[in-house]
Amino acid sequence: GQNIDQPTEMTATEGAIVQINCTYQTSGFNGLFWYQQHAAEAPTFLSYNVLDGLEEKGRFSSFLSRSKGYSYLLLKELQMKDSASYLCAVKSGQNFVFGPGTRLSVLP
Amino acid sequence: EAGVVQSPRYKIIEKKQPVAFWCNPISGHNTLYWYRQNLGQGPELLIRYENEEAVDDSQLPKDRFSAERLKGVDSTLKIQPAELGDSAVYLCASSFRSGSKYNEQFFGPGTRLTVL
């Protein structure tokens, strides 16, 4: 079966750091993706991991441990515009399996 | 470069009525996906096309849903008849051929369907 878990909601303060976790159990693994989705908008690509370790891209970093079926997205220097849902997705075979998303609220 | 185009953006219909959604992927993208996203949840795959071939439609409720991608470019997703539970956002995404491990999906803005 395919199962991806993420916390439903998180709250953080502007300027802070937040870590959004994702655990997965999938029948295949061809990479893990993180997407950002603002309300009533389409998901947009943030990061991709296929090997273990940390990928850094500006204020956003993503980590993967394939042996643990675990990833996290780290957001630094939070801004109000970072308030959105963050979707973890595993490419299993040729399809993408999405988690339920984590709704992040950034407070002033 | 134009992104993935979808229309309409919003659709309100009564149950038992038919409805169709249209998607124009990014030029050159062979792979096209249709997803359904319910409120507060992640997208769920309905169907994946490689060019004009539906290579995975295992999650498509075939009793009422149908899709086509003539000429391997634009695609149409149809529901007939619609039920109350079909209310959701229908997302189209495209990417280059899915044979490689890494191929980023680009999503369209979605069609928000409300069935009354």
Walk me through the structure.
The complex is a heterodimer of chains A (108) and B (116). Chain A is mainly β. In chain A, 0% of the residues lie in helices and 59% in strands. Chain A has strands at residues 3-5, 9-13, 18-25, 32-37, 44-49, 53-57, 60-65, 70-75, 84-92, 95-98, 102-107. In chain A, the strands form two sheets. In chain A, strands 2, 4, 5, 9, 10 and 11 form a six-stranded mixed beta sheet that branches. In chain A, strands 1-3-8-7-6 form a five-stranded antiparallel beta sheet, with no helix packed on it. In chain A, β7 and β8 form a beta hairpin. Chain A is globular and about 40 Å long. The model of chain A has no long low-confidence stretch (mean pLDDT 94). In chain B, the strands form two sheets. In chain B, strands 2, 4, 5, 6, 9, 10 and 11 form a seven-stranded mixed beta sheet that branches. Chain B has a four-stranded antiparallel beta sheet with strand order 1-3-8-7, with no helix packed on it. Chain B starts with a strand and ends with a strand. The model of chain B has no long low-confidence stretch (mean pLDDT 92). Chain B is globular, with a radius of gyration of 13 Å. Chain B has 116 residues and is mainly beta. Chain B is built from no helices and eleven strands. Chain B has strands at 5-7, 10-13, 19-24, 31-37, 44-50, 53-56, 65-68, 75-79, 88-95, 106-107, 111-115.
Q: How are the secondary structure elements laid out?
A:
The complex is a heterodimer of chains A (108) and B (116).
Chain A: E1 3-5, E2 9-13, E3 18-25, E4 32-37, E5 44-49, E6 53-57, E7 60-65, E8 70-75, E9 84-92, E10 95-98, E11 102-107
Parallel strand pairs in A: 2-11
Antiparallel strand pairs in A: 1-3, 3-8, 4-5, 4-9, 6-7, 7-8, 9-10, 9-11
Chain B: E1 5-7, E2 10-13, E3 19-24, E4 31-37, E5 44-50, E6 53-56, E7 65-68, E8 75-79, E9 88-95, E10 106-107, E11 111-115
Parallel strand pairs in B: 2-11
Antiparallel strand pairs in B: 1-3, 3-8, 4-5, 4-9, 5-6, 7-8, 9-10, 9-11
